[in-house]
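Z., the sequence and structure:
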Amino acid sequence: QVQLVESGGGLVQAGTSLTLSCAASGRTFSMYGMSWFRRAPGKEREFVSAISRFSGSVPYYSDSVKGRFFISRDNAQSRVYLQMNSLKPEDTAVYYCAAKYGVLYGTRRGADFDYWGQGTQVTVSL
């Protein structure tokens, strides 16, 4: 079992930045690829970004956040981060981190991830 707890959400103005954090506990964090998804009101869950468990690997992003959001991980602290810059009202959503054991293979499907956090709300106002 892996327990994931997100933090860092809040209410911010458009154009500002926010960094989300996801703390993992349980199994060996370095064995898991990590990702962020989000669910906006009235919409389906959407892939945001993912990072491999392998050091030096290149993270990948959805087109809607590429160039604005940056994912990183600290295996020593068992944490994954999502730095969100130039936030837009359409970024308003509940953000979830998720863990997949082993190799990601570039997946963007929520169903491929084994463990999920409870989510943290991000609201971006004009």
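DSSP finds no helices and eleven strands in the chain. The first strand starts at residue 2 and ends at 7.

Let me know what you think.
H.
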